[in-house]
UniProtKB/TrEMBL annotation:
Subunit structure and binding partners: Homohexamer; trimer of dimers.
Documented EC number(s): 4.6.1.17
Limits of the Molybdopterin cofactor biosynthesis C (MoaC) domain: 38-177
Pfam families: MoaC (PF01967)
Bias (Basic and acidic residues) ranges: 23-32
Chain intervals for the UniProt region annotation (Disordered): 1-47
Gene source species: Halostagnicola larsenii XH-48
Protein name in the entry: Probable cyclic pyranopterin monophosphate synthase
Chain residues that bind substrate: M98, C99, H100, M134, E135
Keywords, sorted A to Z: Lyase, Molybdenum cofactor biosynthesis
NCBIfam families reported in the protein's UniProt record: moaC, PRK12343.1
Any single biological process term in GO: Mo-molybdopterin cofactor biosynthetic process
Reaction equation(s) it catalyzes: (8S)-3',8-cyclo-7,8-dihydroguanosine 5'-triphosphate = cyclic pyranopterin phosphate + diphosphate
Pathway: Cofactor biosynthesis; molybdopterin biosynthesis
Length: 182
């Protein structure tokens, strides 16, 4: 393989990608004229798909202790954040342009309280024609935003700012797809 001739491979949306050194020869969310379009996945077979995303929200130690002891005035932080994460997964198609509405078959949320942050993993499963990575990412970001909303009164400093608070390291941990018959 030379740098002058990048390798082109089909992507999972039916378009193609080039290797990391070349430009994409066909962008799947634009027409030949450069107009935005939704990718047509109608001819793709249904497959079982799963994606797991994760992220953290950095908080003050006193806030983490208050979450552990269920002393946050707005209520149970992690239960509320779990509901928010699941709702976000189910509504991803409404907030991400060109994202397909997919049948969600399962959502798992896993929160853990660490020394300086709350970690969240969201696993999403579907059987369909396109993946569920965006749904997993939306679940993580919304779940962490709900944590922030629930604890903001105790996270603020004397000037009403949030110098110790931050959502970080949001990423897709894994994705898999297999024929729907498995």
């Amino acid at each position: 393989m030379s740098d002058d001739h990048p390798t082109t491979t089909p992507d999972e949306n039916g378009g193609s990608n080039t290797d990391s050194d070349g430009d994409a020869d066909r962008l799947t969310h634009t027409t030949d004229d450069g107009d935005v379009q939704m990718v047509d996945v109608g001819d793709k077979p249904d497959t079982s798909r799963r994606a797991v995303a994760a992220g953290e929200i950095r908080l003050q130690p006193s806030t983490l202790e208050a979450i552990r002891d269920d002393r946050i005035g707005k209520g149970d932080v992690l239960s509320t954040a779990r509901i928010g994460a699941i709702q976000a997964v189910k509504h991803t198609w409404e907030t991400i342009p060109m994202c397909h509405q997919i049948p969600i078959t399962n959502v798992d949320t896993d929160f853990s309280l660490e020394n300086d942050h709350v970690a969240l993993e969201v696993a999403v499963e579907t059987t369909g024609k396109t993946g569920c990575e965006m749904e997993a990412l939306e679940g993580v970001t919304t779940g962490l935003n709900v944590v922030w909303d629930m604890v903001k009164a105790v996270e603020k400093d004397e000037d009403g700012q949030y110098p110790a608070t931050g959502i970080e390291n949001v990423r897709v941990l894994e994705k898999e797809k297999r024929p729907a018959s498995e």
